From TrEMBL:
Alphabetized GO MF terms: chondroitin hydrolase activity
GO annotation, biological process: polysaccharide catabolic process
Cross-referenced PANTHER family: HYDROLASE, PUTATIVE (AFU_ORTHOLOGUE AFUA_7G05090)-RELATED
Top-level taxon: Bacteria
Xref: InterPro entries: 6-hairpin_glycosidase_sf, 6hp_glycosidase-like_sf, UG_Glycosaminoglycan_Hydrolase
Protein source organism: Amycolatopsis acidiphila
Protein's recorded name: Glycosyl hydrolase
């Protein structure tokens, strides 16, 4: 796909300016030390940037894992031609603030924190400080690899007994930080770590019908001894955003490695996703259980994976029907979610239905992946390794 990819599913210049105002409002609304985490009733809920994840009794609190998406959102808006000339500087300032999390050994989501922020700043501007931060974050993520199994521990302090077995489908989209480190350094360990996790995920979190579990607990022998969900409607259902993380994650793996097997996995997951609901409408929060809740962020994540594939691998794009599916999902998002909340870019996303948090409002990552997909579709996103 090239920069001539056009259609009514892409935003107008006026809509891009409104996106810029809304993203800037979210970033500035929290002051110097907080960031918008999810939205409820037309208002952002803010959390401290330095708030780390932790166990609270038997529940796991993920802390603030979303701030990095705001830095990336501003950078992609600049690429899309938003006239706000302060976007890049605000993105770089926010990215630098995340250095307080660079040694956070408590979460796999360090990839989400640093890939759309420091790693992207380093790629776009050759910023050595940002590159150093992103590389350190990649090291911390790689340290979560569990010997024997090869999966990257999802929750908690590294090696802690109750956390060590945890593996989630979300981690598939933390792997881009490892691929950035691979392209930055050329060291094969980054690619090997990403492959090991993707291979274990395929054996532990994917069902034969192409759906996914959200969470598995994996023994030292590499076999899952429990499979279920932390976010979906039921252990035997399929959480839509988790399915989207898997789709975009395996599309990324296929693009990075050229592996036909990763491409086939991505195609299976995508076929299940598209066959579970009408992709010309908004995605339900759960692809099996009818809850009445929608999640636009799931479609945005899938759109990102499809747009990336169209830019990087023509054969894979044909295999997964990327161009048609991308156009249909972008059209639905623009028609049914764009600017339909008082804040944010995409309305009708769901942060956590089981915990009754942010069940109908925009999300930082929904907005980020939508903007990244648009920038890729327009041919202006510098996300393809040289």
């Amino acid at each position: 796909m090239d920069s001539q990819f056009t259609g009514e599913f892409l935003p107008t210049p006026e809509e891009i300016e409104e996106m810029g105002r809304r993203v800037t409002g979210a970033v500035l609304g929290g002051g110097a030390d907080r960031a918008a985490h999810y939205a409820e009733h037309g208002r952002w809920v803010y959390r401290p940037i330095d708030e780390a994840s932790r166990w609270v009794g038997t529940d796991y609190d993920h802390g603030n894992w979303t701030t990095g998406f705001w830095a990336g959102a501003m950078l992609h808006l600049a690429q899309l031609g938003c006239a706000d000339d302060g976007l890049v500087e605000r993105a770089r300032t926010l990215s630098a603030k995340l250095d307080c999390r660079v040694d956070d050994h408590g979460t796999h989501d360090i990839g989400f924190i640093f890939w759309p922020s420091a790693a992207l700043v380093a790629r776009l501007f050759g910023d050595p400080a940002a590159a150093s931060s992103a590389l350190r974050a990649a090291e911390v993520l790689a340290e979560r690899r569990v010997p024997g199994s090869g999966h990257l521990q999802a929750f908690g302090a590294i090696g802690e007994d109750r956390s060590r077995p945890t593996s989630t489908i979300d981690t598939m989209m933390n792997l881009p930080l490892l691929w950035w480190a691979y392209h930055q350094t050329g060291a094969p360990v980054w690619a090997e770590t990403a492959r090991a996790h993707a291979d274990r995920t395929a054996r532990s979190l994917l069902r034969p019908d192409g759906s996914t579990y959200h969470l598995a607990r994996i023994g030292d022998d590499g076999e899952p001894f429990w499979q279920g969900t932390f976010q979906g409607a039921a252990d035997d259902s399929c959480w839509a955003r988790g399915q989207a993380w898997g789709i975009a994650g395996y599309l990324t793996m296929a693009c990075e490695t050229g592996s036909a097997e990763y491409g086939r996995i991505a195609a299976r997951l995508l076929d299940y996703y598209c066959g579970s609901h009408d992709i010309d409408a908004l995605t339900p929060y759960d692809l099996v259980v009818d809850t009445g809740i929608q999640d636009s962020s799931a479609a945005a994540i899938v759109c990102y994976g499809l747009a990336l594939t169209l830019r990087r691998d023509a054969d894979l794009a044909r295999l997964v029907g990327a161009e048609d599916r991308l156009a249909r999902m972008l059209r639905a998002l623009r028609r049914d979610a764009l600017f339909q909340d008082e804040v944010g870019v995409l309305a009708h996303a769901c942060y956590s239905a089981p915990h009754r948090l942010g069940t109908d409002g925009p999300l930082p990552y929904g907005d980020y992946y939508y903007l990244a997909a648009l920038a890729l579709a327009r041919g202006v996103a510098d996300l393809v390794p040289e």
